[in-house]
Write a structure and sequence with these properties.
Elements lengths: L12 H13 L13 H12 L42 H15 L6 E4 L1 H14 L3 E6 L6 H9 L3 E4 L2 H9 L7 E3 L6 H10 L3 E4 L2 H10 L4 E5 L7 E3 L9 H13 L3 E6 L4 E3 L2 H20 L6 E3 L14 H15 L7 E4 L3 H4 L3 E16 L11 H7 L20 E9 L8 H5 L7 E2 L17 E4 L8 E6 L9 E4 L20 E4 L11 H15 L9
Parallel strand pairs: 1-18, 2-3, 2-11, 3-4, 5-6, 6-8, 8-10, 10-11, 13-15
Antiparallel strand pairs: 1-12, 7-9, 12-13, 12-17, 14-17, 15-16
């Protein structure tokens, strides 16, 4: 049987589409039916062409020095570029594995949304943490993503865990993690959960108020306590200081009450907010924590633990990258915490480990072309920029941001609504609760003729599957013309996504498919080990926390 030859380089998106149509239409008796692996060379060529369209400059290097700016692109190279959802990233070996796994799922008839989980990404992030913050013990925030295989991967790597409830404590202990590696990091604890922590020997916990101290004295007097202080988290995606943290003026009184109750306050905790975008926040927080350490030492109760909380980025961007944040934190600790103090440093990273491990695939289940009111024109400029603006395609009457001609009546523009089988009540609750802006790309399945929106393509919106009008994943996206049955995928969806999802309208949360490394035998894969361990525990009726890693 004759196989279809690979396309020639260079390859434009139009050429790519023609090649794909040929690939999937020629299924005669003398032509080999292509497998999903056969799509990857084509995908490589398309991405090589689209690489100049990738959003933003290169990510900064680990040395804390931004990478050199890319060479200027010609107008032809940037034709069709868009900063909206729908741009593509360069193809790497790891990304190729993820794409091939998604294509495999679609090839066998997948209809429901699913995650591709890359546990090696978590291992790489753990190695990066130890490279840049070697003196700080990470305690993964289990609330971020409680996937058992992810938890087991981090546990095998020596990571501790930040738990916020009885259920999270149970889940981590069930994997065999010793109680000594857990931090009960909820400042306001339900009494029954606090009793459970005491029974299981989870002793390290936090507080930020007098009432909590009395509760702890009654239910878990053997606790080792960290005083959660309020810090500046104004640069974070999710602000926490309006709910948790003792102001500086209250710290001395709280330490005094703890001493009267004979409770052991061993250190200070803070959190600069989830998804922080400023290294300055860590500098300020460390300085405030050092002041409390000095207060405690002056009162005859020296401290030994500093918990620097979370807020570390899950994915580097030109604006926020981990190397710079780590450098700022290291410098602050060196300045305010002399080595002779002998302080143990811990942290509570969540999205830092989880974000890049999950890629979500969702299919288009509906499509509708709508007419929407055109936004009013911007006020006329009052300076010399008017001439430049009048020449740009974005300001021409009758065009949208992609340069599409609007042939509809004046004041109305054409848009496309795509409906996918996951939304705000499922994985994309992060749009509401975590202030996320998901990236969206096109999976090169049968019938797809372009990975990016060509010039002239109308803007679109991407909607979830529920009957709620708020269920909008992307209000303004730039995607090529797609049909019902096409698939989109969303990288970096491992943090605060399905963990807060629901089954509203009877919609199921996505399935999980674990990526198997080519260099790793299946038996050694953390997901395999996790499933085998839990199955053996059920078969032997063994108490979960008797398993040790």
């Amino acid at each position: 049987m004759a196989a279809i030859s690979a396309p020639r380089l260079p390859m434009t998106s139009d050429e790519y589409g023609k090649w794909r149509r040929m690939l999937w239409s020629q299924r005669g008796p003398n032509v080999a039916t292509p497998s999903y692996e056969g799509l990857l060379p084509c995908y490589r060529h398309a991405l090589a062409r689209c690489e100049p369209l990738a959003r933003g400059p290169p990510a900064p290097t680990r040395s804390n020095v931004p990478a050199p700016a890319p060479a200027p692109q010609t107008a032809a190279d940037n034709e069709g570029a868009s900063e909206s959802a729908g741009a593509t990233r360069p193809l790497t070996a790891r990304r190729e594995l993820v794409v091939s796994k998604m294509l495999a799922g679609v090839a066998v008839g997948a209809e429901e949304p699913f995650y591709i989980v890359d546990l090696e990404a978590a291992q790489e992030r753990l190695a990066l943490w130890r490279e840049l913050l070697p003196d700080i013990e990470p305690h993964y925030a289990a609330k971020c993503n409680g996937d058992p295989a992810l938890l087991l991967t981090l546990a095998h790597g020596g990571c501790g865990f930040d738990c916020a409830s009885k259920a999270e404590i149970e889940e981590v202990l069930a994997l065999g993690v010793p109680a000594s590696r857990l931090l009960y990091a909820n400042p306001i604890k339900q009494p029954s959960h606090l009793r459970f922590a005491a029974q299981r020997g989870v002793n390290l916990t936090v507080f930020d108020g007098e009432a909590e101290l009395h509760k702890i004295a009654s239910l878990h007097p053997a606790s080792q306590l960290l005083l959660r202080i309020a810090v500046d988290d104004s640069q974070a995606q999710c602000v926490l200081s309006n709910k948790y943290g003792a102001p500086p003026s209250d710290c001395a009184q709280l330490l005094s009450v703890a001493a009267e109750l004979r409770l052991n306050v061993v250190g200070v905790s803070f959190h600069v907010g989830s998804g922080s975008s400023s290294g300055d926040a860590f500098r300020d927080a460390v300085e405030r924590a050092a002041a409390v350490f000095k207060q405690a030492a002056a009162a005859g109760a020296p401290m030994s633990i500093l918990d620097v909380g979370g807020g570390f980025p899950g994915v580097d961007t030109p604006e926020v990258f981990f190397a710079a944040m780590a450098a700022s934190l290291r410098a602050a600790l060196t300045l305010h915490f002399p080595k002779e103090w002998g302080v143990r440093y811990i942290a509570e990273p969540g999205r830092f480990f989880a974000a890049s491990t999950h890629t979500l695939a969702a299919s288009i289940i509906g499509k509708k072309i709508v007419k929407a009111p055109r936004p009013p024109p911007a006020p006329p400029p009052s300076d010399a920029s008017a001439e430049m603006e009048s020449a740009s395609v974005e300001s021409k009457e009758g065009t949208d941001v992609n340069g599409a001609d609007d042939t509809s009546s004046e004041g109305v523009q054409t848009r496309i609504n795509y409906y996918i089988n996951d939304g705000l009540y499922g994985s994309f609750n992060c749009v509401l609760y975590d202030h996320a802006s998901p990236e969206c790309e096109v999976l090169p399945t049968a019938g797809v003729t372009s990975l990016v929106a060509p010039p002239g393509t109308p803007l679109c919106s991407v909607w979830g599957p529920t009957c709620d009008g708020i269920d909008c994943v992307l209000a303004d996206a730039s995607l090529p013309d797609l049909s019902v049955g096409a698939w989109l995928f969303f990288p970096d969806m491992g943090a605060y996504t399905s963990c807060a999802g629901s089954n509203f309208n009877g919609m199921s949360l996505p399935d999980v498919i674990y990526l198997q490394s080519r260099a790793q035998p299946a038996a050694a894969h953390p997901a395999t080990a996790c499933a085998a361990m839990l199955e053996q525990m059920r078969a032997d009726s063994i108490t979960p926390n008797s398993w040790q890693i």
